[in-house]
Every structure is written in C-alpha cells, then in structure tokens.
Design brief:
The chain is of the alpha+beta class and 96 residues long. It has 2 helices and 4 strands. It has a domain at 31-96. A two-stranded antiparallel sheet has the order 1-2. Strands 3-4 form a two-stranded parallel sheet. The chain is extended.
Length: 96
C-alpha cells in the first residue's frame, strides 16, 4: 500500500470569488456560446450544458427537450444510426 503524505485540499480550503459585473440580475446573463472545432470546419452555437451519457439520461426524449433550449445530449449507444438520422435535430451531427 502506498501512503501519500502531501497536503490535500477540499471544498473548505478553496474560495471562489465572483468576477465584478455590471449585470443587475442573473436573468441578464447570456449563456449562448459559439465553438469552432480545431480539426474541422464545423461550428456549434448553443448553451454548453450536456446531459451525461448514463442509463436513462442519454435518450431521444431528453435530446429533443434540451435541443429546444440550445443544449446537447450524449446519446446512449443503443440507438440505431439510421433511425437517428431521420430526426431533424440530430441530422446535422450524424454522418452515415
């Protein structure tokens, strides 16, 4: 067994200090971001929140709902690619 003796930090040791802002309310925050991918000419605009690929989370119903708000879902691998290609919101992400 290996014993690590160096100092460890936990949440009580870390202080997050918010950046100063001129916003009056949280509802004024714009979460929309655009990402350009380094090795392709693809670009994605949306809110960078992704539903994790866990049992029952990465399903088509979740993908449709999150897409309405500009978010992404990592689908479970059990979906048929040809069936996914028929869904309008997913067509731009899937290549057959």
């Amino acid at each position: 067994m290996r014993i690590e003796e160096e100092l460890k930090l936990d949440y009580s040791d870390v202080l997050f200090r918010p950046k100063r802002s001129t916003l009056k309310s949280r509802k004024d925050v714009n979460l929309l971001r655009t990402y350009r991918f380094k090795y392709s000419k693809n670009e994605w605009s949306g809110i960078p929140i992704i539903a994790a690929n866990m049992d029952g989370v990465g399903e088509l119903s979740i993908a449709k709902k999150l897409n309405d708000h500009g978010m992404i879902t990592c689908l479970t691998k059990q979906h048929d690619v040809k069936k996914l290609n028929k869904i309008k919101i997913l067509r731009k992400f899937i290549k057959i």
